[in-house]
């Protein structure tokens, strides 16, 4: 690990301007992804801008109209245990409760998870299925425009996520087939129904989270797991590793999408 300068801003404005003043700095939230990256020397930031002092400003869960609004520094444990989340989007509390272990859930934040865009992380599936918007210090980014590639998002250099806004679905369910040690998703599928429309977000299966238009169209006609039988998931862009080959992941996408629909019911 290389040396770096450690900053402790107390407000969003201060954090953004501090980060802007560095040549190769990074924000540090819960550190559950960034610290391992630093320990493995996969990144050498000149500065770490800690977001710990922004907790008061950016740790909250509230409802505004038909949206569930979660501050970027809200931990996975807070989402998992929130009565508001359990009432408005129970499947999101289920998702958060299945992330890593108790330590990861108590340190890791929703903003950090979304910014990191790990291909096996859980939240990306929810972001896509629940038609979320990601609010930053300078703009609002739609779910479908956010995840670009493996560990790559639409965020500009030094852009800070301040909150994530999820649209309340009529029904929704999330299920994953996870790595037994880390709990990262080998395949995770989030299904959400909005009146006549259905959105399906998939994580873990490919290098970036994606939607499944064929599944969405079939489920929009009938929100029944059986309608997914016979719709082939293309293996072309799926991760093909020894432990879980692309053809296997394709099958798991269908299996877990069906279970997510059942869970939604
Ligand atoms: C053992 C282990 C198991 C795990 N299992 C799972 C799992 O099952 N499912 C899962 O989804 N995840 C899992 N994770 C990852 C965990 O959820 C992390 O909390 C999350 O990926 C990163 O959040 P963080 O707050 O720790 O961010 P950090 O590690 O502090 O930061 C991650 C990246 O995001 C940037 N960043 C942080 N906050 C912001 C912000 N507000 N705006 C802009 N950029 C920001 C940082 O600069 C950094 O590049 C696991 C991690 C570990 C160590």
Describe the structure concisely.
With 265 residues, the protein is of the alpha+beta class.
Structure in words:
The protein is of the alpha+beta class and 265 residues long. It folds into 2 domains: 5-54, Uridine Diphospho-n-acetylenolpyruvylglucosamine Reductase, domain 2 (2-Layer Sandwich), CATH 3.30.43.10; 59-264, Uridine Diphospho-n-acetylenolpyruvylglucosamine Reductase, domain 3. It has 12 helices and 14 strands. It has helices at 12-20, 34-39, 55-58, 76-81, 83-88, 90-97, 102-107, 110-116, 123-129, 143-146, 213-221, 246-264, and strands at 5-7, 26-28, 47-50, 61-64, 67-71, 133-136, 140-142, 147-149, 152-153, 161-167, 171-178, 185-194, 197-203, 210-211. The strands form 4 sheets. Strands 4-5-10-6-7 form a 5-stranded antiparallel beta sheet. The chain has a 4-stranded antiparallel beta sheet with strand order 11-12-13-14, sandwiched between helices. β11 and β12 form a beta hairpin. It is globular, with a radius of gyration of 18 Å. The mean pLDDT is 97. Bound molecules: flavin-adenine dinucleotide. The site of flavin-adenine dinucleotide has 32 residues, from β2, α2, α7 and α8.
User: Quick one: CATH class of the largest domain?
Assistant: Alpha Beta
Q: How many structural domains can be distinguished in the coordinates? A: 2
N to C succession of SSEs: EHEHEHEEHHHHHHEEHEEEEEEEHH
Give average pLDDT, whole number: 97
What is the correct CATH architecture of the largest domain? 2-Layer Sandwich
Q: Order of strands in the sheet with the most strands?
A: 4-5-10-6-7
Number of helices: 12
Fraction of residues in helix: 25-40%
Radius of gyration, in Å, reads 18 Å
The CATH topology of the largest domain is what? Uridine Diphospho-n-acetylenolpyruvylglucosamine Reductase, domain 3
List unreliable stretches of 5+ residues.
Answer: none
Distance between the termini: 48 Å
The count of DSSP E runs of length 2 or more, i.e. the number of strands, is 14
Cofactors and ligands present? flavin-adenine dinucleotide
Structural class: alpha+beta
Strand content: 15-25%
Form type:
globular
How is the biggest beta sheet arranged?
5 strands, antiparallel
């Amino acid at each position: 690990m290389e040396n770096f300068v450690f900053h402790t801003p107390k407000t969003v404005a201060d954090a953004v301007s501090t980060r802007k003043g560095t040549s190769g700095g990074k924000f540090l939230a819960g550190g559950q992804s960034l610290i391992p990256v630093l320990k493995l020397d996969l990144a050498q930031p000149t500065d770490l801008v800690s977001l710990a002092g922004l907790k008061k400003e950016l740790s909250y869960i509230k409802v505004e109209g038909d949206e569930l609004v979660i501050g970027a520094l809200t931990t996975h444990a807070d989402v998992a245990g929130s009565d508001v989340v359990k009432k408005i989007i129970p499947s999101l509390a289920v998702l958060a409760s299945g992330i890593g272990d108790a330590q990861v859930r108590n340190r890791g934040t929703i903003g950090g998870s979304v910014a990191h865009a790990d291909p096996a992380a859980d939240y990306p599936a929810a972001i896509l299925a629940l038609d979320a918007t990601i609010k930053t210090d300078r703009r609002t980014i739609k779910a479908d425009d956010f995840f670009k590639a493996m560990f790559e998002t639409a965020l500009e250099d030094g852009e800070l996520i301040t909150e994530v806004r999820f649209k309340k679905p009529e029904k929704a369910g999330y299920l994953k087939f996870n790595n037994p040690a880390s709990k990262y998703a080998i395949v995770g599928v989030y299904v959400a129904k909005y009146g006549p429309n259905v959105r399906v977000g998939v994580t873990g299966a490919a290098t970036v989270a994606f939607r499944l238009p064929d599944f969405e169209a079939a489920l929009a006609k009938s929100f029944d797991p059986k309608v997914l039988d016979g719709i082939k998931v293309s293996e072309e862009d799926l991760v093909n590793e020894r432990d879980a080959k692309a053809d296997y992941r394709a099958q798991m996408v269908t299996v877990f999408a069906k279970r997510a629909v059942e869970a939604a019911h």
